[in-house]
């Protein structure tokens, strides 16, 4: 067999095309959506995509949380650093995603199904809120067989760092576990973004299965609070929650767990278990951005994870990783949707 390519970072999750338009409260009410939320589309939501395209001058933008993170990490890393896996359909939307990743230097190895269209996410922008309604479709069809196929698995074995988007916990836990076990067996960093508050709420058991393998966990304040609640702890104290996350028993004893909680414009909180099993905290003020400079908040958290993960790939300190994360999140806030400025800005 021909020598397979190798990339230092693999991201796994749900490839989606974002259909993003500006909406108002009335639109959110019509579809029963909250201003800053993510939901899975049910029958009653299916009209939202056409509504956005016909009435809201919506734009089609490459999305999918961890795919945004993959493009973000590649933005800050040398060429050929990142590859991405997920499932798409055989249609124009898949082609759009392939082209977006190619343009930004992310190598894709999509599983392709013919019986479902590529997944899409209706994004309703309302001031600095973004509400998302996701029809996973093909993205929901991802299977472990694809990851374990000869070519893909040999690429996995050559990968140094794994980033999994928490939204994949709704799709294919066996694939996540296969990467987690590979990371554990070879002492490679394994990173997980929580995705959305409904993950710790409704996919609590799946999250609990993966958490022991996580060297890094990313979440925002809502996700952190909901996770704490799912553990029977009703608190808004983000440090306390980060500490609880650090203390979830860990499989890989060679790496301390780091928990990173973003909090909008308030400082980013990190917690890391040191070798004496004592949790150390840090707070990092976010990189200032004025209201007028913000285009929309769609993808800012994914960009944060992308910048941070790029730092992990480069073996940077925690402080440097947070700085890279905040730098990239700020750039993404200025762009339309989960995008990064081209020509590239250098860090
Ligand atoms: C399973 N779900 C609901 C999802 C998503 C998702 N990515 C993966 N799985 N729902 C929304 N997104 C993506 O989140 C990004 C913003 O953080 C959107 O595509 C959007 O680009």
Estimate the strand proportion: 15-25%
Give the CA-CA distance, first to last residue: 39 Å
- The strand line-up of the biggest sheet is 7-5-1-11-12-13-14-15-16
Instruction: Please count the helical segments.
Output: 13
Low-confidence stretches: none
Q: How many whole angstroms does the radius of gyration measure? A: 19 Å
Bound molecules: 6N-dimethyladenosine
How much helicity do the residues have? 25-40%
Q: Overall mean pLDDT score?
A: 96
How many E strands? Answer: 16
Order of helices and strands: EEHEHEHEEHEEEEHHEHEHHEHHEEEHH
How many strands, what sense, and barrel or not for the largest sheet? 9 strands, mixed
Question: Can you walk me through this structure?
Answer:
By secondary structure, this protein is α/β, with parallel strands linked by helices. Helix content is 36%, strand content 22%. The chain contains 13 helices and 16 strands. The chain has helices spanning 25-30, 48-55, 65-76, 92-103, 144-148, 150-158, 173-185, 198-202, 204-210, 221-230, 238-246, 300-313, 318-333; strands at 9-12, 16-22, 38-40, 59-63, 82-85, 87-88, 107-108, 111-112, 119-126, 129-135, 161-165, 190-193, 216-220, 258-263, 266-273, 279-284. The strands form three sheets. It has a nine-stranded mixed sheet, sandwiched between helices. Strand 11, helix 7 and strand 12 form a beta-alpha-beta unit. The chain is globular and about 60 Å long. The chain starts with 8 loop residues before the first strand and ends in a 14-residue tail after the last helix. The model has no long low-confidence stretch (mean pLDDT 96).
